[in-house]
Amino acid sequence: MTDGRLNVLASIDRQIRLGGLPPAARLEHPGPPPASDVGGDLVARFEAEATALAVTVHRVGGDSVAIDTVIGLLRERHASRVLAWDAEWLNCPGLAAAIAADGITLESCWLPPDSEARKARLAALDPVPVGLTGAVAGLADTGSLAVISGPGRGRMASLLPPAHIAVLRAAQIVPSLSHFLASHPDAADAGSNLVFITGPSRTGDIEMTLSRGVHGPGVVHVVVVE
Description:
It is a single chain. It is built from 6 helices and 12 strands. By secondary structure, the chain is an alpha/beta fold. It has one domain (about 35-225): Rossmann fold (3-Layer(aba) Sandwich). The strands form 3 sheets. Strands 1-12-7-4-2-3 form a 6-stranded parallel sheet, with helices on both faces. Strand 5 (about 135-140) and strand 6 (about 145-150) form a beta hairpin. It starts with a helix and ends with a strand. The relative contact order is 0.18. The mean pLDDT is about 90.
């Protein structure tokens, strides 16, 4: 954590302690919530909530089926290139190699520091039809994906292409946001940003006309490996 960020957080902490807290409030972290917050089959609950948000969930048994499923989705999109995280972050051993063996080019999310070269690289990536990522967790109560970007996990993969495929292990699904924060206390410092993706990108204009895919992928697939 940088000195500047520490100073800001320390200042916030001082001001909180100087001010009055609401009744029954406390400064200490309350700890993990009870498991009963979301009961039953977490995978089924995640699937139901995500499906209600227009996400297509594919529950598969094992890595080989997951690989076939992802390659099948790429073929459906006629993708000759895919903007992907590095292989180690895709939550599926052998997936990147299998995609390459199928003749599909895996484009990294790397961007050059020079502004002109950066523009050229972004222009070259703009036609890529699919982004492929892993995920840190899934939230069963909202059908959300927790995604942390960082080295090898470029945020462009889940933002730039019109379709996003995420691979999630069933064991990574937690009941709720509270459970995620309790089980991942370092999530905010684990990468350059932490986002929760809840369905395809949606945008409403002044007349409340809802459009998908304006500011992000309009199609989202989640492959849950059980």
